[in-house]
Amino acid sequence: MSLFILTFVLLVIVAAAMAVGMMVKNKAMASSCGGLGAMGIEKACDCDDPCDRRKERMAKEQSWKDNQIL
User: Fold this and answer.
1) DSSP character string of 1-67
2) What's the pTM value of the predicted model, to 2 decimals?
């Protein structure tokens, strides 16, 4: 029984550490499957003129793609 409790406590600690890490990074979770880009959708929002933060992020992503070695 003590092994079960120890394993459960360790699992809770690891899950809490991952949650704190995601909050500290302040970044949305991303999948490895490509998300909307794999379905041919260029952007998640439907607005014609995205906000400045979104424009900066899109420019950074584009520069990363341009400099990517295949």
Assistant:
1) -HHHHHHHHHHHHHHHHHHHHHHHHT-----SS-GGGGGT---SS--SS--HHHHHHHHHHHHHHHT
2) 0.41
